[in-house]
Amino acid sequence: MVGPLGTWIKGFIPSPKDESYTQSDMKVSQLIDHELHTWRTSMVLDIFNPMLAQAILSMPILARPSPDKLMWIPDSKGLFSVKSAYKELLPSTLSRVANELN
To answer: What is the pTM of this model?
Structure first.
């Protein structure tokens, strides 16, 4: 997993600074203001430590996000991995971002 500064950190899992947040099913979409297409900065800063919050806030929010969907993208052995999903989704994501920039 990629760490808060963009470097590879084995086993990195972003976690809230307050244990009470781990008790609820929180989704990334709850951290986004969908009308303004921005992060809910105060919420991100309240939930995560400063370094992780800044890493999250530095990620761009697409103006026209596509709806979430459940996908199974197996690798050559028929197993799911984040790597196989990434390889499958990267071309379409790059194309969509390029279209938004034009």
So the answer is: 0.51
